[in-house]
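Researcher: Here's my situation. A collaborator sent me these components and asked whether they could plausibly form a single complex. I don't have experimental data yet, so a predicted model of the whole assembly would be a useful starting point for our discussion.
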Amino acid sequence: MATTVAAPSYAPPRTQAAEAKGGIWSWIATTDHKKIGVLYLFTALFFFIFGGLEAAVIRAQLAAPNQSLVSAELYNQLFTMHGTTMVFLAIMPLSAAFFNFLIPLQIGARDVAFPRLNAFSYWVYLLGGLFITAPIFFGLAPDGGWFGYAPLTTRQYSPGLNIDFWVLGLQILGISSLAAGFNFITTIINLRAPGMTLMRMPMFTWMSFVVQFLVVLAFPVITVALVFLQFDRFFGTNFYTLSAGADPLLWQHLFWIFGHPEVYILILPAFGLVSEVIPTFSRKPLFGYSVMVYSGILIGFLGFGVWAHHMFSVGMGPIADTVFGLTTMLIAIPTGVKIFNWMSTMWGGALKFTTPMLFSIGLVSMFTIGGLSGVSHSSPPADLQQTDTYYVVAHFHYVLFGGSIMGIFAGIYHYFPKMFGRLMDERLGKWHFWINLVGMNLTFGPMHFSGLLGMPRRIYTYDANQGWDLFNMMSSVGTAIIIVATLIFVWNFFASLRRGPVAGRDPWGASTLEWSIPSPPPAYNFAELPTVTSRYPLWDLTEGDLTKEHHEAPEARDRRIPTAKELGIPMPADTAKPALAALGLTVMVGGMFLKHVNMTVFLAVVGTGAVVFVGALYAWLTSPLEEAH
Amino acid sequence: MTATAMPAGTGAAHGGDAHAHGHHYTTTGLDNRKIAIWALIGSECMLFASLISTYLIYKGKSLVGPYPHEAWTDPATGTVYNPILNIPVTSFSTFVLLMSSLAMVLAHNAVVNKGKPRTGFWQKLEGNSVFWLVATALLGTVFLMCQAYEFTSFVHEGLKLGTNLFSSSFYTLTGFHGAHVAAGVLWLWTLAFIDLKRGLGPADGISVDICALYWHFVDVVWIAIFVLLYLIK
């Protein structure tokens, strides 16, 4: 019989599915950060699969020379939407799923600071994501690359509706990210439980905190760049019109001032997740906690000073090239510090190679490969050889797939039991990990070679006998292997939802507050706000006995978790107003593409959207958050 | 394991009263909205920094006129265009916007000191929050009317949105600022309406406070725009 460890007094008494409220309406109207986190997770996984299928078509087309599986036009749409989908609709929202689900639990809060704004963020994301994705079924998907370089994307060179969908869709998605950014900054500053000082916060919350600052400071810049492009395309301004004297680099500068912090927006949450997993399965506190915090902040800070390393080939001159080369090399220092700290955490630990741990180690090793190739093109002369080749594609896929996605998978396996009350299957999880690892290296490893042999990015086909054939075939076979791995994951995910072993409060013997409450947690999270006295409250509670398994005592099984009402805890009321406001906003902004289709329809649609948006916003802001009681 | 010995449970008694009815516990003691509005302002700084930088980068780069500070003769038609920017009118609207910030401060003051005994016309005026809220909103509205006049007269003088780089960056920047003022005016009218309907008291101080922070920020941005666009040639 497993040893029973007394639950802390602030935890509700029992582990059992929370108040069962079903139905689709309970999801549309929910303001519960945990349910919104689950919505983010499912939606983002859907888009991850969708973006993966786009990549699969790309790799099928490139498997051999001179194939014509897709046309050049469709190929442009595929690589544009693959990038856009993975960045804005998959990795960012997968991180947001964890922000939503975990941050309030990790800091000991009942919810986020603005629960309805949180729902609004999700619905804007979902609707904006559908808006930007749907056109591919009509052959009208954006086709200017995920970076949408102007003047290529101006009306003169891209006359179709494709880029309109991209511009408007990204504006909509930006609003979602900004609203979430304000919400989480406020949540982390202001809703920490008593005793949860900044330097006691779990590392995931810390990295998320840094990310929110990056979001609120970087997204306004791309908003402005997109507004310029939108005005150029819709209202005849000439921000990007070279014949009017415009600077051809304006877009590139604005885009990358956003785009490089965006890279850290994508990776830091994954860093945070593995910083939760590695100490748990090494049975040691995180090595160099404060240095991890400072290096995260430093990465965020330096992230704003390296943008022009994306532009070495445009001829900025030796001084600018040198400065941005140096700042880029500098950023390798705090990143390297993190790698060494994870290794030092594992050093001498009682390692347990569970699936989340394997994926975390996968991140540490694969991200390091991507980081090293990144350092190799921080040098402008080297970059001139590598830029716009598959070498760069290899680099950022090691960072984003080997880094972000590996970290997110670690997070999913680690927190699945907390989210759904059941564990995922470990055997299938390990199959997923190893097949995924092989597939990813086979896909992206050879791209280093095809790139250095001169294969450019974004070409829809190539001639034989340039030395690229074998490497491309390897990459395509690797993609098929990744698909197999992903299918195993999907099967494991859904099968475990129904049949996984019941997890209990803290199946991994982890240390932070979220593991002190039942799985899944009740709506109010904590029956009483906890008081925190250290970085590892649950490890303190078990007084150093970290190896015992934590299971609920059998006699406690049947006790029901009290509802918020019974405990007298005021809860935010369910409301669909944020979803309605999101719908109005999406119709208002998205409907603008109709300007070049039919003026009357355009005015009617945008006007209706505006009325719905403003009306729902007023109704929401003038109604109280909580039900009267 | 470096366990700080105190079990986490012992502190629960302190946390326990944190959800006392109607008062939510916050770490800093500040209202959530106050922190969120500062985060919003930080974000808005980047928005306006991008817009202003673009204007400055494109300054003097327009291939055709009209220009902001100097006259321009169209070589094709021989038409002479006057310098576009009208400093006296904009100085007046800038003054109006600055005064609206003063009224905003007085509105906030009146709300948080509601219930203080006041005698005489001037003291009562000082405590009349509806008056000050409406005054702020009206001054903001006057500013918007000045901007509407400005835009209209510029168009009549030959500066349309797509005329040159100057017109594109000028209208977009000042238009974005105007949209922010318009949102603020709407916010102020809403507050004034609520004040008229049920009366705002010291408990509503935060609602006025965050509106005031936003309003002052929009005002400060205008100072930057006025100096960088209008005064520096």
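Model: Some features of this prediction you could bring to your collaborator: The mean pLDDT of chain A is 91. Chain A touches chain B through 67 residues (CB under 8 Å).
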